[in-house]
Structures are given as C-alpha cells and as structure tokens.
Amino acid sequence: EYKKKTKKDTSHSKPQKTSYLTFFPYEHFRRDQERIIKQIEKASVEKKNSLLAAPNGTGKTIIALSAILPLAFKKNLKILYLCRTHSQNTRIIKELTKISTHLRYSDINIKVNGLSIRGRNEMCLNEVLLSLKLNPRESMAVCSDLRKNRSCKFFLNLIKKRDQYDNLINIAPEIFNKPVDAEDLIKFCMDKKLCPYFLSKFLLKDMKLIICNYQWLFNPFIRKFKFLSFNRIIKKKLIRFPENI
Ligand code: SF4
C-alpha cells in the first residue's frame, strides 16, 4: 500500500539530523525503494554518480528527492533536476509539493521550495515579441531592445516590485515559499502584469530545487546565454539529477 502519512504522524518531529526518512512523504516504501534511496544517499555523500533504471511505478522521483534532499540541506546545496518534457517537470513539482506538505504537517521546521523554469519564448507575455514568432536567439535580442527602450510594461512592473521588496519571494510568499510550476508562475504574472521569465530568473537564488529541460545544460547556445547566467545568479554548488535521459 502506498498512502500518504497522516497529519497526526509526528514521529519525525523536529529532527536533530535529517535523513531520507525526514523527507519521504508516504506511509510505506514500495518494493526496493528504501534500499535504492540508501544507495543513492550514500553515493551522493561520497560524491559518486548514481544511475537508476527502473520501470514506471517504481517511484523514481520520490526515491531521488528523498535521497538527495538531506545532503542538499546539510551542505546548503541547490539541486538542479533535469527532465525531458514540461509534463515531467510538473511531476517533479507535484512530488516536491507532497514533501513540502508532509514536512509542514509533521511539524518539521524545514521549508522545501522549488521552481520549474522554461525558455523566454515560452514564458514571455509581451505581445510585440510574441507576434514576431522568433527563434530563441532573435527573441533574446528583441527582448533586450524592449527593456533598454523601457517598452516592456511587464519588465518595468517587475523592476518596480524588485525595488519595493528586498526579496521577491515576498511578492507572494504563500506561492513562492512552496514548489511552483512554471505554468502557475506564468498565470500569477499574467494576473499581476509581470514578466514571468525574469521573475523566475530573480527567484532562482532562493530556490532549493531548480527544474528545467536537458537542453538548458546540453545545448551550447542555451548553456552560454541562459544556463550559465542562471548559474551566476545561483552562485552556489549544484547537485545535478537528470531524469529519463
Ligand atoms: S522582459 Fe519579459 S515580457 Fe518583456 S519581452 Fe522580455 S521576456 Fe518578454
């Protein structure tokens, strides 16, 4: 049986030391899950790579998250989780949300947040840029011109917010202190007339888990112009966890 821990379960309340048991949000482990989690946790501590190939339904995502979150918190690291599709990104956010809810219900004072991010063309709200249907390189140039000319209201609104808040999480702490899917961040920005692309960029430094597609790491153009600039913003070491290569 694979059910969530109940609200009354406080068996891991206020732990001195975290382990995979602190983060695992379900009542029972599926077959082999605990053994694999322990192996990945040990390998991560020893700075070794792990390769997990298992059929659907094994619970690979929760295995990975439960195994590496203790180390990420202990060493103050960020986790970069790479997926193939947007729907996989959303699944990671859903599992992370279960962990976040479990920690809150179990009275464990650890906040797990995370953000799935997308490219400029998929997040931009500016009608001019969208109407041009450009490739990513061209979009970057047009976006830059729009910002320089102060012609993008979404970016100007965001900069105003950034001047008002010392931490942009405080624009909507009830949303950004928890795992957020790119889709939800875009909806929030449509409502508030803010640029989702730059908001996600500004929020990265405060996110424990960053979820994006492989191409952010493997495509040389994106790596040069996007991933590395994100990496500079993050200014922290990363644990990289690719899924379904
Ligand atoms: S600043 Fe944001 S909303 Fe404006 S053009 Fe660039 S990506 Fe689009």
TrEMBL record:
InterPro entries: DinG/Rad3-like (IPR045028), Helic_SF1/SF2_ATP-bd_DinG/Rad3 (IPR014013), Helicase-like_DEXD_c2 (IPR006554), P-loop_NTPase (IPR027417), RAD3-like_helicase_DEAD (IPR010614). SUPFAM superfamilies: P-loop containing nucleoside triphosphate hydrolases. The keyword Nucleotide-binding applies. Keywords: ATP-binding, Hydrolase, Nucleotide-binding. GO terms for molecular function: ATP binding; DNA binding; DNA helicase activity; hydrolase activity, acting on acid anhydrides, in phosphorus-containing anhydrides. PROSITE patterns: HELICASE_ATP_BIND_2 (PS51193). This is Helicase ATP-binding domain-containing protein.
